[in-house]
Amino acid sequence: MPRVLLIEDDEAVREGLSLALTYQGHTVDAVRTGEEGLELLMSVAPDVVVLDLMLPGVDGFEVCRRIRASGDLPIIMLTARNDDIDVVAGLEAGADDYVAKPAQARVLEARIRAVLRRSSVPAPEVVTERHGSLTIDREGLVVTRLGQPVSLAPTELRLLLELSSSPGRVMSRQQLLESVWDQGYLGDSRLVDACVQRLRSKIEDDPAAPRYVQTVRGFGYRFGPL
Amino acid sequence: MTLRLRLLLAFALVSVVTAVAVAGAGYVRARDAIVQRAQDNAVIETTNRVEQLYPLPARPADTAALERIAGRVSGREGQALASANGLSAGGMDPSVITQELRALVSTGRVGWQRVPYAGGVWLVVGMQLRVSEGGSSGIEVFVLRPFTSEIEVVDELARNAWLIGGAGLLLALGMAFLAARGVLRPVRDLRMAAFRLGQGDLAARVPVRGRDELAAVATTFNSTAASLEHHVGELRRMEADARRFVADVSHELRTPLAAMTAVTDVLDAETAALPGVAGQAARLVNRETQNLARLVNDLIEVTRFDSGTAALALDDVDVAEVVARTLRMRGFDVTASLPEGVRARLDPRRLDVIVANLVGNALRHGTPPVTVSLSVADSSLVIEVADAGPGLPADVLPHVFARFYKADSARGRSEGSGLGLAIAWENARLHGGTLVAANRPGGGALFTLRLPLGGER
Asked: How far apart are the first and last CA of chain B?
């Protein structure tokens, strides 16, 4: 079962979530501050980070940015319920998904499963595709741009694979939320928009005038046509 | 009629009456005097000329004598006519002599009359010539002389009277305008201030000028506005305090609830096996924890609407798809009419909240079948949720969207948080749309949601 790093400053919430996730079979390392969490990251190598945004000292956004800078570990943030500013800022800092507090353990569990499925996506197609100056190796899960490997977070990679699997086809945000974020319910379209922004900044020559991930006003997103 | 117009009219009327009285009377008197004097002069002059003819020869006049007489009395500018015994002589046109004048002269008196002639006004003077004993000589003399210059003087007088009257009227109107402005400016200030006060600008005040009645009104207005501002400020402060308190309480409740909610799944799984009372108690705690979490979530949502921090996460969606998903996910048993292809830019999760609350409410409090229908009207999407029950009582209808409003006071806690419809209404408003409740003519409550197709307005 996956190993979860839980960073949460409130003792009761930390204990409750630890209990519930452990009960589900996860191995949980629970810490109180961002500093402890970043330190523990080096030694325990978790599969996923569950991160409260409101932390004493180094706050959740900064922790998020540092984790993202050093690797592609999936991050789920815990936010105050629907706190829009926090959600947007957290997604911009690189979080893959979020869960609003108070949340039942099974909701968090579902999100954890979804991001892990995302980061260990099986690759049925064998070919390495070439789109303009971009190559996508669906088996090795490697993306290169102008011959240089591009470092993509798990959600970004998954989104790129999903969009590029049928170039030229428009996909709505809700469709993408279902296929990439595994959200059966109506999802938060800001997850898609934030992820698209991050993806564009990494693969587009000019993120302000994207060629690969294009916005189709009134509908959603489309890969190409180049 | 405005006060300004009334003042202007009153001033104008007064000035016209005065001008007519003064200028008119002056004109009439002057005119009469001028005309009278001119006529008198003409008559005297003619009489003098006639007197120079005396003594007259006693024999009956012949044409030559009449011609001579006419020549003598005509003067420089005039023309004369002398007649006797059916003979007449002279350069004057006899047709200008009226019957009236002729009759007067035949009685032996001196007569005169102004007549229009040759494009001007002329004076005809007529008299009989007498023999020395005082008897009539039978000769009548008429003299026609121009009277135009006198008429011109009179016309000049009339023109002057009109001019002076007009100038006076203009002056009076100007004065009236100034006076009206002086009186009306404070009135206008008051009106503007009252309007601003009505628009919610409680700091609206009027300047107090002088010590007259209008100044007293302005002072009263100012003190009233000041006390209104004070009271409203007090009320707003209290309301803001109350709302902040609710927000603080909700946020404080959230953290312990987050810990409790996290473990409800563990408890659920474990208490299923717990026997008897302990299991029942644990399940009760679990269920109520979830209810409490829902209530606190709704409270936090409401405080976010109140503080203006609620924001839309807009997405381009097929509305039918969103509504169908809401109905399917929640297992609502309704009759739905959802035409495809209605695309809108909105926050699908907020639309989900609205539809879920409306349908949930209809299923809980209404009578099945509950119908949900989607249509488009005036670039808005329209979603109607109706049931087949007796509808909403008239005293409930205005309050259905009020927070924690209970239609039936005997019923204790409702199944929902008591905030569902209030949140649905706020969500509609956040989209720039509307949500209204009504009763259908055929029975049953009808909730109508309208949202702009193009996102918030």
From this structure: 42
- Which residues of chain B are within 8 Å of residue A80 when distances are taken between CB atoms? 251, 254, 300
Task: Let me know: does B384 contact B447? Beta carbons within 8 Å.
Answer: yes
Residue among B129, B124, B130 at smallest CA distance from B141: B129
What global pTM score does this model have?
Answer: 0.64
Q: A105-119 and B213-271 helices cross at what angle (nearest 10)?
A: 80
Which of B26, B25, B140, B153 has the alpha carbon at shortest distance from B88? B140
Sign of CA pseudo-dihedral A121, A125, A131, A137: positive
Reported as a single tens digit per residue, the pLDDT across B77-136 is: 778 888 877 778 877 888 888 888 888 888 878 888 888 887 778 888 888 877 656 666
Say yes or no: A81 contacts chain B, CB-CB below 8 A.
Answer: yes
For residues B373 and B383, the answer to whether their CB atoms sit within 8 Å is: yes
Give the residue on B whose Cα is nearest the Cα of A16: B259
Check if the beta carbon of residue A140 is closer than 8 Å to that of residue A126.
no
Smallest Cα distance from A151 to chain B, Å: 28
Report CB contact under 8 Å: B254, A104: no
The tokens 């259905």 sit on which residue?
A: B400
- For B308-384, where are the alpha helices, taking DSSP H only? 319-329, 348-365
Give DSSP secondary structure letters for A145-208: ETTEE----HHHHHHHHHHHTSTT-EEEHHHHHHHHS---S---HHHHHHHHHHHHHHH-SSTT
Longest dimension (CA), chain B: 170
- Taking an 8 Å cut-off on Cβ atoms, the answer to whether B296 and A102 are in contact is yes
Interface test with B, best of A104, A106, A170 (most B CBs within 10 A): A104
Interface residue A85 vs chain B (CB under 8 A): yes
pLDDT tens readout for residues B178-234: 888 877 788 888 888 899 888 888 888 888 888 888 888 889 989 999 999 999 999
Which residue in A22, A24, A54, A81 has the most chain B C-beta atoms within 10 A of its own C-beta, making it the best mutation to test that interface? A81
Nearest CA in chain A to B293: A102
**Per-residue pLDDT band at A86 (split at 50, 70, 90):** confident
Neighbours of A65 (CB within 10 A): 14
Q: What is the pLDDT of residue B457?
A: 41
CB proximity B291 to A under 8 Å: no
User: Which of A13, A106, A186 lies at the smallest CB-CB distance from B255?
Assistant: A13
Calculate mean pLDDT across residues B11-16: 82
Q: Residue B343: its chain A contacts at CB < 8 A? A: 218-219
